[in-house]
Amino acid sequence: MRKDVGLQLDGWRITTAEIIYHMPDHPGILQSFVWQKLDMPPEFPKLRKFLDFWADNLDGPLHSVRVGHTDIITPPKFRNVSRSFELH
Question: How many structural domains is the chain composed of?
Answer without folding.
Answer: 1
